[in-house]
Specification:
Blueprint lengths: L2 E2 L5 E2 L3 E4 L3 H12 L6 E4 L15 H4 L4 H4 L4 H6 L2 E4 L4 E5 L4 E4 L5 E2 L2 E4 L3 E3 L12 E3 L3 H13 L2 E5 L3 H12 L3 E5 L12 H14 L2 E3 L4 E7 L1 E7 L3 E4 L2 E4 L3 E3 L2 H5 L8 E2 L11 E3 L4 E4 L6 E2 L4 H15 L11 E6 L2 E7 L6 E7 L4 E8 L2 E8 L2 H12 L6 H5 L5 H6 L3 H7 L1
Helix pairs in contact: 1-9, 10-13
The chain binds flavin-adenine dinucleotide.
The site of flavin-adenine dinucleotide (FAD) has 36 residues, from helix 1, helix 9 and strand 24.
Length: 426
């Protein structure tokens, strides 16, 4: 909304960002880097300044890092760059007609451009007993602190869901000497995101960590009075539990957008430039569904890379340099000594080629559709992951034979990329 100042000139009210997480912070930082000089306000409903979530299920839970070290920037950064950071405050309504948002505390905020970066919320376990004390979810620093406290007294931990978060929690809990059982309704771990070969490898690795993995198994009920004592599984099996950690996926936080009449379909629908149906509103990160630049299919990604690169893309557009969002997706997960890194989108893969030897705990799986490389999943093979990032960003491929041939020189292949494409792959 622009009103006029004393000289009759339009007065800018700047950019308002909903959500003080990874993407919200990035929009503000990139706007200032791009020389944007108007007001920037980030409104977040958590207490903390923007922080990194990935360590919550890894180093932070293990006690290997502190809350302060998770912060993306210290308080002084926001002051120095005149970014208004409003914490502990929820945006409760978007008034598109008046170009302003209502807050849970204080006066409404007007915007010239609004960026929705509200992330996601945990999918809840729909079983009897799910509200008992000792049934916990992990999304925020506060959740991680609460889980840490319960860890101390817990002996038997049940993890519901063998996705990334569930397996990272199992890896930490087993390292802390707990008895860990992971319950997964699907036939293999991380099945929505990785190839069979990677699932099999991680199932074996968790068995070595001492984790009991029960696939093809449903968690049907949580038992206890006041506190959790056990869980009932399909097949009339009962497993003791004094802590149940639930990691069964997340749902996009798209309710504000939906209430404001913006199209929503598994996330806030945006175009190739991350604009919603309203030209004054963008959406990024976990809450946004956007067209994949390669296939055109609508996708919603839950990763740091996606939130950061989309934040940068929107900031550039607002600062006057519009471009479609075309970053190559990548992701990582740390489970004990295993670093899993993935690049590309592998839906539609019909052929996989393993490079290296899983028995050596360092290998990659190259995923193809026909002869076209869709993505690479690497375990403790950072160089192959980086190779994939550069190759896919340049829009190029290797053949399945080349991928499987350890004598095929990946570095030399990168050197043959067209210079202009390498530059744009940055
Ligand atoms: P978020 O960072 O979640 O920020 C959204 C913020 O908006 C939140 O603070 C939320 O409370 C706030 N909010 C929501 N609604 C409102 C409102 N109405 N008003 C004000 N504020 C609001 N990704 C990886 O790539 N690798 C990993 O290893 C990895 N590990 C992870 C481990 C854990 C435990 C978790 C929870 C996530 C992990 N992720 C990982 C995912 C990654 O952290 C997210 O994809 C990323 O944070 C998304 O950024 P975002 O800005 O979209 O959302």
């Amino acid at each position: 909304m622009t009103s006029n100042n004393a000289n009759g000139q339009p007065m800018s009210v700047g950019v308002v960002i909903i959500g003080a997480g990874q993407g919200g912070y990035q929009v503000a930082a990139s706007l200032r880097e791009a020389g944007y000089g108007e007001r920037i306000t980030i409104v977040g409903d958590e207490t903390e300044h923007p922080y990194q979530r990935p360590p919550l299920s890894k180093a932070y839970l293990l006690g290997d890092t502190t809350a302060e070290r998770l912060l993306l920037r210290p308080q002084s950064y926001y002051e120095k760059h005149t970014i208004d950071l409003v914490t502990n405050t929820r945006v409760t309504h978007i008034d598109r007609a008046a170009s302003r948002v209502a807050l849970s505390s204080g006066a409404p905020l007007a915007y010239d451009h609004l960026v929705i970066a509200t992330g996601a919320r945990n999918r809840l376990l729909p079983v009897t007993g799910a509200t008992l004390d000792g049934v916990m979810y992990l999304r925020t620093l506060a959740d991680a602190d609460a889980i840490k406290q319960h860890f101390a007294a817990a002996t038997n931990i049940v993890v519901a869901g063998a996705g990334f978060i569930g397996l990272e929690l199992a890896a930490v809990a087993s390292k802390l000497g707990k008895q860990v059982v992971v319950i997964e309704p699907l036939p293999r771990v991380m099945s929505r995101a990785v190839s069979d070969a990677i699932s099999q490898f991680f199932a074996g690795a968790h068995a070595q960590f001492g984790v009991k993995l029960m696939v093809d198994t449903r968690l049907e009920r949580i038992n206890g009075s006041g506190r959790v004592m056990s869980v009932s599984l399909s097949g009339a099996v009962e497993v003791p539990a004094d802590l149940v950690l639930v990691g069964i996926g997340i749902l996009p936080a798209d309710d504000l957008a939906q209430a404001a009449g913006l199209p929503v379909a598994n996330g806030i629908v945006v175009d190739a430039q991350l604009l919603t149906a309203d030209p004054k509103i963008s959406a990024i990160g976990d809450c946004a569904a956007f067209p994949d630049s390669v296939t055109g299919a609508m996708v919603r990604l839950e990763s740091v890379q996606n939130a950061v690169d989309q934040g940068r893309c929107v900031a550039k557009r607002i600062a006057g340099h519009p471009a479609p969002y075309e970053a190559v997706p990548w992701f990582w997960s740390d489970q004990r000594d295993l670093k899993l890194q993935m690049v590309g989108l592998t839906a539609g893969c019909d052929r996989t080629v393993v490079r290296g030897n899983p028995a050596e705990r360092a290998f990659s799986v190259f995923c193809f559709r026909g002869d076209t490389l869709l993505g690479i999943e690497s375990v403790n093979r950072g160089a192959e992951h980086m190779f994939g990032r550069r190759l896919l960003a340049a829009g190029e491929s290797v053949t399945p034979d080349e991928a499987g041939d350890l004598s095929f020189d990946l570095k030399a292949r990168l050197a043959r990329l067209a210079p202009a494409r390498v530059a744009s792959a940055g």
